[in-house]
Design goal:
3-stranded antiparallel β-sheet; elongated; Tetrahydropterin Synthase, Chain A
Length: 279
């Protein structure tokens, strides 16, 4: 018996195979064209259509792009830190060298403007030069000593100037700090010598005040003693002297055993007993 082929079944099988092949080809083409793009956290997608920057900025998440026509460039909008070295001169022409740190980020919805006008190297093109210019401008307003004593005020002025200037480029300043303020070796030695002299002068002043207080205390003590002697002197009268003499004689009588001394000298005191007893 001869085998027969079912034309309908064969057509179905061929159609299924063609469908699988079409799906594979479509998937391959879709993967090659890559019409989907994912914008990660802390980034924004700049849409470029045939090389031209578009007004649309992609937020975080999954987005569709037109294959071949559109390309997406990722821009970091998280807070970044940049440390810059800046040399400047103070108001009294003292050379200064400062190390500064600035925290900044791109304004998210202006990422396309930054890319179009500054590119991805905006730090080297704008941030670093602006920091150096601001440090020089503010430093020139103060003397070297004021730069040391008014550091917080100077930091705030530089920060405000940076905020104003970088805002023109859609870059937001979060914070600014002066890591270090350095001067020439000669000036640093002069400052150290001045501080030493001030400390010695302060110590000498304190010693002088201590000596003065001690002298005043001695004078006060001497006056008090003199006043006490004066009062005692005023209190001594003839009656008091006579009373003290009688008291002394009475004490001598109380100690006398009733016998007269065998040898008398001029040094032996004579006691008038009857007068002492009031007889």
């Amino acid at each position: 018996m001869a085998n027969t082929i079912d034309p309908a079944g064969l057509n179905r099988s061929m159609g299924f195979i063609k469908w699988i092949i079409g799906a594979i080809v479509a998937f391959a083409v879709l993967s090659a064209l890559n019409p989907f793009v994912v914008v990660s956290a802390g980034e924004r997608g700049v849409v470029m259509r045939f090389g031209a920057v578009q007004d649309r900025v992609l937020d975080e998440g999954l987005h569709f792009r037109v294959p071949i026509m559109e390309r997406i460039v990722m821009m970091d909008v998280r807070v970044q830190k940049e440390q810059t070295e800046a040399a400047a001169a103070s108001k009294d022409l003292q050379d200064t060298h400062s190390t500064t740190a600035v925290n900044y980020h791109l304004v998210p919805d202006k990422a396309n403007w930054v890319f179009q006008n500054l590119g991805t190297s905006y730090k080297e093109r704008v941030v670093d030069p602006t920091v150096q210019e601001s440090v020089k401008a503010i430093t020139a307003k103060y003397t070297a000593v004021e730069l040391i004593t008014q550091r917080e005020k100077i930091r705030e002025e530089i920060r405000e100037m940076l905020k104003t200037r970088l805002a023109e480029y859609h870059i937001s300043v979060d914070d600014f700090s002066i890591v270090n303020f350095g001067f020439s070796q000669q000036f640093s030695q002069a400052i150290e010598a001045k501080q030493t002299a001030e400390q010695l002068a302060l110590k000498a002043q304190r010693d002088l005040e201590r000596i003065k207080i001690e002298a005043e205390q001695k004078i006060a003590n001497a006056k008090a003693e003199a006043e006490a002697l004066r009062l005692q002197k005023e209190a001594v009268t003839s009656e008091l002297i006579r009373l003290r003499q009688i008291e002394a004689q009475i004490k001598a009588i109380e100690k006398w055993d009733g016998r007269l001394p065998q040898i008398t000298t001029d040094a032996l005191p004579f006691i008038d007993v009857q007068r002492a007893l009031g007889k």
